[in-house]
Structure formats: structure tokens, C-alpha cells
Amino acid sequence: MFLKNKTEFFHKNYQVLHIAPEQPFVQRFRNLANLKYTTADLESPLADIKLDIREMPIKDCSYDVVICNHVLEHIDNEEKALSEVYRVLELNGWAILQVPIDYSRETTFEDSSITDREEREKIFGQYDHVRVHGRDYPKRLEKAGFKVSVENYLDTFSEKDKDLLRLQKEEIIYVCKKTEC
């Protein structure tokens, strides 16, 4: 809904890289005549390109849009992953890089010494997560070079519609723009 109502994603010609593509979107995005749509993942059979987000075998400035949802909380070197996303974006390109955020936390918590699956699940909320992002997430994106727009898109919905559509109550969308090469 955000892409449809708040961007030109469905109308403008874009080169799109979708990392860890969500199955419900793949065919819909592939069918859009305005997109040159590429999927990428380390393991997924949906991926056009097999890659590690920390070392993408993609030329600089190759994509207008990068979509990467719920990946960075799994990546041990988030800074490297973010720098790679920044690198493959065209100048003035934009990215949606959503992660689960604990809005009660001021800062992101990570501890690489926690490797036990049960302990990770208890501390990070899932056995394969390596951090819990806090409200400092936009600052982490800015540190990678992005100009970040904070979109409180859910504020445009009534509580009834949020329930009807099963939207998360606290989902802020961070639109990351590459403004410098």
C-alpha cells in the first residue's frame, strides 16, 4: 500500500533489486511493465541472483530501488550490508530497509558472543537474529550515507482499518535515499 500510494513504484520505470523477496510480491512486481525487477537471496529458490548482502556481485549504481525487508537483523556485519546497498543504488535512488524495531529501546542491542539458539531467541526474539533494533535505527541508516525520511504511514489509517488489514501498530517506514556518490 505504501509503494502504491506514496511512491511512483507502479508507474515510473525503475531498475529494482528485491533482496530476500517476499513470495506474495514477486509475481506482482514481475508483471509490472515499468520495472526491470531482479530478486536476490543467499538461499531462496525465488532468487534470480544468489548473493550475500555483505558482498554483492553487482556493479556500482545499478539500481534505482532496493527493497530489503527483515534481513538486517540476521546479518552479523550490518554496516557492511548497508554500505553494499548504498553502493549498488543509483544517485537519487531509494531503498526500503525494514527491520523489526523495539520502540521501547532507545538504542540497538547486539552482542556477537550470544550464539546459543535458545539464548538468541530469548534475547533477540528469534534464534537467527543477531540484534534488536531500537529507535536509533534511522541514525544507523544515516551513518551508512543515506538521507532518511521517516514515514508514519500507519497514521493515515483508522484503528478499525489497521485491525481489518492486520497492520502492525508501530510500523514506521524508513525511506533511504542516496544523495551522494
Task: Provide a descriptive summary of the structure in words.
The protein is built from 6 helices and 9 strands; from the N terminus they run H-E-H-E-E-E-H-E-E-H-E-H-E-H-E. By secondary structure, it is α/β, with parallel strands linked by helices. The chain has a single domain (2-177), classed as Vaccinia Virus protein VP39 (Rossmann fold, 3-Layer(aba) Sandwich). A 7-stranded mixed β-sheet has the order 3-2-1-4-5-9-8, sandwiched between helices. It has a two-stranded antiparallel ribbon with strand order 6-7. Helix 2 links the parallel strand 1 (14-19) and strand 2. The longest helix has 11 residues, at 78-88. The mean pLDDT is 95.
In short:
This protein has 181 residues and is an alpha/beta fold. The chain has helices spanning 2-6, 23-30, 78-88, 117-124, 137-143, 159-165, and strands at residues 14-19, 35-41, 49-50, 63-68, 89-96, 109-110, 131-132, 147-151, 173-177.
- Provide the gyration radius in Å: 16 Å
Widest sheet, order of strands: 3-2-1-4-5-9-8
Q: SSE order, as H and E?
A: HEHEEEHEEHEHEHE
Which stretches are low in confidence, meaning pLDDT under 50 for 5 or more residues running?
none
Give the percentage of residues in beta strands.
15-25%
* CATH-defined topology: Rossmann fold
Number of domains: 1
Rough outline = globular
Secondary structure topology:
Blueprint: H1 2-6, E1 14-19, H2 23-30, E2 35-41, E3 49-50, E4 63-68, H3 78-88, E5 89-96, E6 109-110, H4 117-124, E7 131-132, H5 137-143, E8 147-151, H6 159-165, E9 173-177
Parallel strand pairs: 1-2, 1-4, 2-3, 4-5
Antiparallel strand pairs: 5-9, 6-7, 8-9
